[in-house]
Specification:
10 strands; transmembrane helix; about 450 residues; two-stranded antiparallel ribbon; 3 domains; four-stranded parallel beta sheet; Aspartate Aminotransferase, domain 2; about 10% strand
Length: about 450
């Protein structure tokens, strides 16, 4: 129903720009390294063929990595994961082509080509990503959408996200409290130029006959319908869509870390990364923090608290002590301007340095570098009864950092009934979509947040 003016051209333009950059980098290195051979026709033809092969490989690979299939609600963290995955395979292709080909230039310069392309394309595509986000936040390239049906928790969360994230470029149009009739709905679509209708899967207040008519009218009027599953009553997290010939079926999902090779890769990464941090940083940082804690207040240096871990096994999570010692620390959550927090403890919390001892938990196999953050036992028990599919997050080891944390979903600010559900959904997304590249991107983003300072850390 809504006329689309820019999106299709933007995608074509980005693809062409990527191809031009790849070609120009290749030509630049060739000319710089072979100034005396510029008029050698055979050599130029050989390298032109290499450019064509790399371009075709780039385009074919993008279909697999979904590099150009970018929904407007994609976050930069997930976009980086997709880009890095694509680039690693592409750069491996460049190195392999240089190794097996008879092209002397490609053999000698394949590593410099790979490094240069990675840096240039990362800067270029990040700039385009944020430029598009900025334009959408300013009201350019938007989508008119509407919600219809029962006001479920899932719908409330989705509306909250779209209202907060102006850079997604959604404009929510309200149908109001008028009687739900197909004719009135179609007139509303035409008047407001609706692009997408968001519709809960479970609509107890709309009869099946009317629901069928709405779907038919949407198809005729070119209005997309997006179904919103209920996060409490629906098992969509536990199933995936497969086919027997052309008949769709739902089969029990197997999460990435259920596969032993993936589990082994993650464990190797955890051990190596933790050893590097503990040896190179914690070996000198821990004594300094320990002295400051002892000077600031009486009590132990470390604070151990029971948390739920992998498959809800209870373990002792190690942190630097940031509060005056009292019996409430293990059972009462932190409050704003909490008087129990010491001066050095306030600094440690805001810088997240109080979490550093948890690398010991990682080495012991109780935690992972990246994963859902472990909650206090009483917090876990409270939200298990409140949020459906909460326990899915326990199917992987808890982490020192996680997707929710680098996405700004931390702290106790805002409406916690919504914010905690968004946090849990981010954790579940991580469980279902884990990859080693995603872990790497989350670690990099955590490092930048640590240097920059996370306003929600406390």
């Amino acid at each position: 129903m809504q006329r689309l003016r820019y999106s299709r051209y933007l995608k074509i333009g980005v693809i062409l720009l990527d191809i031009i950059v790849i070609s120009l980098v290749f030509v630049f290195f060739f000319i710089e390294r072979n100034r005396d051979l510029q008029l050698n026709t055979d050599l130029w033809e050989q390298n032109a063929l290499s450019i064509v092969l790399l371009t075709l490989f780039w385009i074919l690979l993008s279909g697999r990595t979904k590099l150009y299939t970018i929904p407007r609600n994609l976050t930069y963290t997930l976009y980086l994961e997709r880009f890095v995955s694509h680039m690693l395979i592409f750069l491996f292709g460049i190195i392999l082509l240089g190794k097996v080909s008879n092209n002397p230039f490609l053999k000698s310069e394949r590593f410099w080509l790979a490094i240069s392309l990675f840096i240039l394309l990362l800067l270029l595509k990040s700039s385009i990503f944020f430029a598009v986000k900025y334009l959408r936040s300013r009201g350019i390239n938007f989508r008119n959408i509407m919600f219809l049906g029962q006001k479920t928790d899932s719908r409330e969360i989705l509306e909250n996200i779209m209202q907060e994230r102006k850079d997604y470029g959604f404009r929510i149009k309200e149908f109001g409290n008028q009687d739900l009739e197909v004719e009135k709905l179609v007139a509303f679509w035409k008047e407001e130029q609706i692009h997408t209708l968001y519709f809960p899967v479970d609509n107890s207040n709309i009869n099946k006959e009317l629901e069928g008519k709405i779907h038919s009218a949407a198809e005729v009027n070119k209005v997309r319908i997006v179904l919103i599953p209920h996060i409490v009553n629906n098992n969509f997290f536990e199933y995936e869509l497969n086919y027997i010939e052309t008949q769709p079926i739902l089969t029990p999902a197997k999460f990435p870390l259920d596969f032993f090779t993936n589990y082994l890769l993650k464990r190797i990464f955890d051990i190596l990364f933790s050893l590097i941090i503990l040896v190179l940083i914690c070996s000198w940082l821990f004594p300094i923090i320990a002295i400051l804690i002892k000077i600031d207040s009486k009590g132990a240096i470390f604070f151990r608290q029971l948390r739920f871990g992998y498959h809800d096994e209870v373990f002792s999570c190690i942190k630097f002590r940031t509060m005056f010692e009292n019996e409430e620390n293990a059972t009462q959550t932190t409050q704003i301007n909490d008087v129990r927090i010491t001066k050095i403890g306030n600094f440690l919390r805001r810088s997240s340095l109080d979490e550093m001892p948890q690398f010991i938990n990682v080495l012991l196999g109780q935690m992972s570098v990246v994963g859902p953050r472990p909650h206090m036992l009483l917090v876990d028990k409270y939200y298990k009864a409140k949020i459906g599919r909460y326990t899915v997050r326990s199917l992987v080891k808890p982490g020192i950092t996680g997707l929710a944390q680098v996405s700004g979903l931390r702290g106790d600010m805002g409406d916690m009934s919504i914010e905690m559900k968004k946090r849990i959904l981010a954790d579940i997304f991580y469980v279902k979509n884990w990859s080693l590249v995603l872990d790497f991107v989350i670690v990099v983003k955590t490092t930048f947040l640590f240097i920059k300072g996370d306003k929600k850390a406390r």
